[in-house]
Design goal:
The protein has 13 helices and 15 strands. The chain is α/β, with parallel strands linked by helices. The protein is elongated.
Length: 385
């Protein structure tokens, strides 16, 4: 299938060289949204799910390792529970996910099985990206499944996730998974065939290629789709594609019916070229997912040191502490005017820091003990924003 974005009179966009890598990629992460697989009235859309499974199984059988990040568990559980719309409270969302996840996996098992492809269920939470031991184990499990020819079906573990540690949408989860498994590309599928420079219904034009953030300036991006069963929309697709591209992974945003064409490297959707180097998964989480627990206000010298010289944050450069946090929590570092400079994992609790402000580590070591000679935020636990 091909995109319907190019209309009569339009010039067919050039196929950017990067798209060709999808045809021969070693490992691809594909994310599909709830609106593409389910509806409130009908539960799981069998035709849509089967069509997607056909395209992915064909790619898997051709030698490409595929990880499918699939939304739809909560939406699939609505009809069986007699719910007319996606619930807002976390407990009912968890109940719907618990019912729907099994239904969704049963359909995937059947659809992929028709092609001789085995699928597995992998449920992740934000905690799995926060701690080294957990994301190392997650990588090993996914890597082994791929080596065995399995298509892992990944979803957020909605049944146990809390508001504080949720991904919020599976688009960002997919970007982090792509980074975790060292994928060659990320393909984000929804019910919209491409990114446009405005509302498509008003004659907006398709954006075939995004080379970097500047290409998105002035672009009006839509939110959650018409189905009302998802949490993202084009905003989160673009955010996830930008996260991937900024950390060394090409990304494509297109519609679910275009999956086969996209994986063949055809000119569909919007292609996000790599515009940054790969980063440690923990820093990617810190930049895009971490729930900030407090703020450290920096003087001008500390702002320059952190932003321009990429150094650790020392107590001498901190003028104020805001919030209630413990050692190891994520905090924001801000300038005197409140501008956020960076995020990092703090080495001291909010109760310890006031006595340390403006003092050198040597002075603190002499008066409070050697345990206070550490940086407040080490450069390895810090990311500029």
């Amino acid at each position: 299938m091909t995109s319907n974005a190019t209309r009569a009179g339009d010039v067919t966009p050039a196929v950017f060289p990067g798209r060709a890598l999808l045809a021969d990629a070693r490992r691809i992460v594909v994310k599909v949204g709830s609106s593409s697989l389910t509806s409130i009235k009908g539960g799981i859309d069998e035709e849509a799910l089967t069509g997607l499974a056909d395209a992915l199984a064909h790619k898997r059988n051709a030698g490409t390792e595929i990880i499918l990040v699939s939304s739809g568990a909560i939406a699939a559980g609505l009809a069986p529970l007699g719910l007319e719309k996606r619930p807002r409270d976390l407990a009912t969302q968890q109940a719907a996910a618990s019912v729907g996840q099994g239904l969704l996996m049963a359909r995937y098992t059947h659809a992929f099985g028709a092609h001789g492809v085995t699928v597995s269920q992998v449920l992740l939470t934000a905690d799995d990206f926060m701690r080294r031991s957990q994301h190392t184990n997650a990588f090993r499990a996914l890597d082994r499944l791929l080596n065995l020819g399995v298509v892992p079906v990944v979803n957020e573990n909605d049944t146990v996730a809390t508001h504080e540690i949720r991904f919020g949408d599976n688009d960002r989860l997919a970007a982090l998974v792509a980074h975790l498994v060292r994928a060659d590309a990320l393909v984000l599928l929804s019910d919209v065939d491409s990114l446009y420079d405005g509302p498509p219904a008003r004659g907006a034009r398709r954006i075939p290629h995004v080379a970097g953030p500047r290409d998105l300036e002035g672009v009006s991006i839509g939110s959650t789709g018409k189905a009302g069963v998802g949490t993202g929309g084009m905003v989160t697709k673009v955010e996830a594609a930008s996260i991937a591209a900024g950390s060394g992974i090409h990304a494509l945003v297109t519609s679910t019916p275009n999956a086969a064409a996209a994986l063949a490297g055809e000119d569909v959707g919007t292609w996000f070229s790599v515009n940054g180097a790969r980063k440690p998964i923990r820093l990617l989480w810190l930049a895009h997912l971490a729930s900030v627990q407090g703020r450290l206000v920096l003087d001008d010298g500390a702002v320059r040191a952190v932003r321009e010289r990429h150094t650790s944050l020392l107590p001498a450069g901190i003028t104020a502490v805001q919030g209630d946090f413990e050692s190891g929590d994520p905090v924001e570092m801000v300038g005197a005017d409140g501008t956020v400079i960076a995020r990092g994992l703090v080495n001291y609790g909010a109760g310890e820091l006031p006595q340390m402000l403006g003092r050198s580590t040597m002075d603190l070591g002499r008066s409070l003990g050697p345990g206070y000679e550490r940086e407040v935020v080490h450069v390895d636990d810090l990311v500029l924003v």
